[in-house]
TrEMBL record, chains A, B:
Residues in Amidohydrolase-related domain copies: 56-404
Gene3D superfamilies in the record: Metal-dependent hydrolases (3.20.20.140), Urease, subunit C, domain 1 (2.30.40.10)
Species of provenance: Candidatus Marsarchaeota G1 archaeon BE_D
Molecular-function GO terms, alphabetical: hydrolase activity, acting on carbon-nitrogen (but not peptide) bonds
Alphabetical list of Pfam families matching this protein: Amidohydro_1
Keywords tagged on the record: Hydrolase
Protein name per the record: Amidohydrolase-related domain-containing protein
Keyword Protein biosynthesis: no
Organism taxonomic ancestry: Archaea, Candidatus Marsarchaeota, Candidatus Marsarchaeota group 1
Amino acid sequence: MTAILLKGASIVYDTYTGKQLCNLNVYIEDGLIQEITEKSTGFKSDYVVECNKKAVLPGLANTHTHLAMTLFRGLADDLPLREWLEKRIWPLERKLKREHALVASKLGLIELVKAGVTAFADNYFFEDALVEATKSVGLRALVCPPIFDGEFEEHTLSHVSNLVLSQRCDALVKWGFGPHSIYSCKKETLEQIGALSKEHEIRVTIHLAETRWSQVLCEKSFGKRETDLLEECGLLSPRTLASHAVWVTKQEIRKLANYEVSVSFCPVSNMKLAEGGVAPVPELLKEGVRVSFGTDGAASNNSLSVLETIKIGLLLIKHSRWDPTLLKPHEALLIATKNGYEALGFPKHALQTGNAADVITLDLRTPSVICHRSVPLPNRIVYAPVATVDVIVSGKPIMINGKILTIDEEEAKQEFTKALEDF
Amino acid sequence: MTAILLKGASIVYDTYTGKQLCNLNVYIEDGLIQEITEKSTGFKSDYVVECNKKAVLPGLANTHTHLAMTLFRGLADDLPLREWLEKRIWPLERKLKREHALVASKLGLIELVKAGVTAFADNYFFEDALVEATKSVGLRALVCPPIFDGEFEEHTLSHVSNLVLSQRCDALVKWGFGPHSIYSCKKETLEQIGALSKEHEIRVTIHLAETRWSQVLCEKSFGKRETDLLEECGLLSPRTLASHAVWVTKQEIRKLANYEVSVSFCPVSNMKLAEGGVAPVPELLKEGVRVSFGTDGAASNNSLSVLETIKIGLLLIKHSRWDPTLLKPHEALLIATKNGYEALGFPKHALQTGNAADVITLDLRTPSVICHRSVPLPNRIVYAPVATVDVIVSGKPIMINGKILTIDEEEAKQEFTKALEDF
């Protein structure tokens, strides 16, 4: 295994504890953080990464995206969700082939790396292509092929469960079930997924209460709220990651908390699709729900940057409650790292000896990051844009000094540009 | 004067007309765009800037900021406006000296340049220091020293009017009056500013209806809305640039339109301070008000990037109206360039022969900018972050290939870091 020395880091900020230290060296070997220390000598390393004017912190998690949708970025802007889906996205998806998904996933992965994301959840077509791309780049992913009761034969429960149950999860890639939503699956399908998830301890991602429409439809069809229906189907558990959760009631929030369900907060996608409402993040957090951040796909954001989503998410919560004191930058970083990793089922990556070495560095030479000494790092990097310089996942160097090492960025861009011609 | 050839630009996008062309050369001399042409030879240029994989467009205007507040970035986060002002900002400002304002303005200018901003309005203490910094960097500025009826002797009307009336405006720097707000000036002061503005044709910037509190106070004190009071004081005219305009009525909007007042929309600052409400941008635009974008100061945003403000502004309008079709990226770029320049009193900088050469280039190698050929440039650069590569103002190269030419960036950062120690 590669050994890496992050040398002379100006700031080491552990999002898990909020502890901020200066001028330290981080030594990484065997996929783990071995030592965080003042001494910079005596280490045998394959890579010495100079970290003067850089901040070292745990990598960010993007807990809701559809990477191959980078192909459709900009093709469905400024539309309501139903029209976005039916008039633009579905017709495009009918042309989608595995080779498109592969190159589109690679481009999405490059964007994630450059935004300091080290782990993500994905839910889209041709997930085996996504896994191929993810393994070539080296990020961690929870991969949940979507399940519909509809026109996509490859995405019926039987196909997806055969696929998922035959895969071997490893330290970097985990497979799960991705029932798209309550409105696109039959109740029996959801019940079967609930049973399989329990029996095989398999994670599940699902769109929950993204719009008023989906809640109203659920009430009309089943006489109950979406969260209650998921409970009935055995789909509320610590293995479930529910995206959006905009239109949930207090009673639903308590239920999500009781069952230890994780929630992905996707403020940019929600604002852009403008279905109204704001996910009740303060109430979710207060009840103990494991909230994290998701960007959603590139066709509905259109950026995959978690840091951008954090800024906009904090602004949205403060603005909608007329309360600027709600949700602080250090809380946002805690939930974007610790909560995100827990929601995806990946190991602890707090900056402490023995933890997973999923580490990023940010550029402290950016003018907007230069602040008074009393300003903590989270405020510097959350409220103004900052560049990611280095990315290490499970001890492996993915990007060093802005250069991606694991795949050829130019080649990936060319392949992607070529694939766009098919649409 | 310098002659510059922007050679082989992949995209030339004129925000004024929405016209997007490919593979063109832009020739700049004597401060003006001389030619936009397919041929790339036959020009005698001091600078040849390779523009393959770059988009050329008119520079952005930031119509509301307080540059020297870069000193206070991060020192007053997550507070309501009155507390932000009284507990944090005012005590800090009492320690502020001219030399601080000079180095802080330089850092702010560097940030503006790197964000593609070529012109801005400023309203803060020690505006002569801001002007010195602005002239050294080479941007265009409308500089409006604040006027208060309060504790700041240098900022009474008599001091400021002596200063402003003794200054010579030039092509790059214009002086104006900056009465802070209705609640921090006496009515007689506002009336005198109105008369001076009319007599000497001098521009005025003022905070208008930023909070419910300021409107309520105005109603209590004068029995009328803020816009009506400004009218009574002779302060509604095409020379006036009103910032925020969140809590205005339909009747006020019509009045702003009738008098051709400009409005600076500052969504990020408004959301972060969370005083509630959303500036009625669709109604303002519909009535014909010249709306543009402002970031506000670094202590209340905390970024000076207009492109970031545009994205968040569009999201906020769509979200708050439950209507994703409102405000499109090309409209946003039109108002961020044309409207901004008009609001500040600077010349037309549409990408056409004979106009002011205030031009920026953006990096089209960014993964998120690579889209299907049918996606127009505005959608690519508004909804996902993109880097500015070159900045030219009035035909002068300010930043070329990411390197600022007019001042020493490292020295400016060091001086700024040193100045922070005084706070």
